[in-house]
Amino acid sequence: xxxxxxxxxxxxxxxxxxxxxxxxxxxxxxxxxxxxxxxxxxxxxxxxxxxxxxxxxxxxxxxxxxxxxxxxxxxxxxxxxxxxxxxxxxxxxxxxxxxxxxxxxxxxxxxxxxxxxxxxxxxxxxxxxxxxxxxxxxxxxxxxxxxxxxxxxxxxxxxxxxxxxxxxxxxxxxxxxxxxxxxxxxxxxxxxxxxxxxxxxxxxxxxxxxxxxxxxxxxxxxxxxxxxxxxxxxxxxxxxxxxxxxxxxxxxxxxxxxxxxxxxxxxxxxxxxxxxxxxxxxxxxxxxxxxxxxxxxxxxxxxxxxxxxxxxxxxxxxxxxxxxxxxxxxxxxxxxxxxxxxxxxxxxxxxxxxxxxxxxxxxxxxxxxxxxxxxxxxxxxxxxxxxxxxxxxxxxxxxxxxxxxxxxxxxxxxxxxxxxxxxxxxxxxxxxxxxxxxxxxxxxxxx
Amino acid sequence: xxxxxxxxxxxxxxxxxxxxxxxxxxxxxxxxxxxxxxxxxxxxxxxxxxxxxxxxxxxxxxxxxxxxxxxxxxxxxxxxxxxxxxxxxxxxxxxxxxxxxxxxxxxxxxxxxxxxxxxxxxxxxx
Lengths: 447, 126
What we know:
heterodimer; A: mainly alpha; 0% strand; B: mainly alpha; three-stranded mixed beta sheet; elongated
């Protein structure tokens, strides 16, 4: 019951900023908790910069998003003159994906006791809850370096915002907040996949399957206060909206929202989101549509703002500031990390690459399928993962054993998302979809 | 013509079958209650650990509220981190041991309460 109350609070709090960011879309509903988290993250950044408590920045940003949403609503209302409608398949996708994906939330029955949740995410939330000045002191304190003070603030900020409202820094609530944010990101990804299909049921069912598969990748780490699935699902939604089919202006803006959420959630999300934005911008340049791509600039801007702020406050990264390793060490560690990824990853990559080759005609004809830029994105994410292990100061065997099952979540989920879109396309395209017939881009995000 | 249609249909179903084969194992894992941590044993185990953590936290807070400057012992890293977590932001943890009034660590003895076999060890260092 308490978990439902927190979910409802996050959803309601995020609805206005979600509408301000995404406009009329089924994603506005699914991503509302993420929008609340994003607002909390920006509030924490303001609080850190100004050395104030969290209350004033939260109120300020809530008022700003309300103003932005009002302007957006007025403009839309005038343009549409009552012609706005919701596609029936979108209406079905949200509850179908939502219900199927809710099963793994059974893990919320466990107590909030896991290592990184306590040492990093809940701990940061305590800093932010204590106010900007205390949080800045903690971030610069070498005694607290074990808590990775350089990690981006979104998940902890959402927790701190809730604690600010309730007045009680309580770990169970922290666990539920992060689980709700994660669920929101996973359902958004499922709904994004569903939108690729014209079929009323196949898309939502496959979207729900991907939601389950996403939790299958992380197991109990999807509900215990860890954030790996949160950034991964957000970044995959951003990549899907940008790199599958030809994105409209509205889809580009929506993808920027999800990429910013991922970038402000974890360092891996930050690197991966910038990679997606860069690849998408290159693709738009190739199509001579760079004037449509301006929202993508917000992704490196948000990531850069956090990087600068955290470094100015004295937070240090354990990966980047442990001296310059030799080239030989980097290469041998990269080979070790590649080997640890395993045969399963290689087979999934082969499957996606095979589909891309077989369906090249489909991609050229406008059918929304993952093409070469999507594949490039998968490679870029795996490359950044291997690079992180290559430069890490820790013993490679120890580092891989303690983190790889979580850090590979993003690239693996991107692979599974691509494969799922091929599945939807293969099942639901009646004629020509895979073999070159004309197919309009999904209208779901085009209004 | 028929051969071409057959080729197109075959391509569709090959892609669908392979894609389903790639997704299915992960979907099954997403339904695995044991792996998700939703079994009775997992819940009970997590509750036992949580009770010990809560107990240690209460002890840390009771010592920290005495107002003494403290230094966290270099014992097991897990407990060193827990003490720092529990003490912040009320705590006055110091970076230099020689400046501390108290040395805090967690160990098996019972000189300051007992949390399921674990105790907070408090040494007067000044």
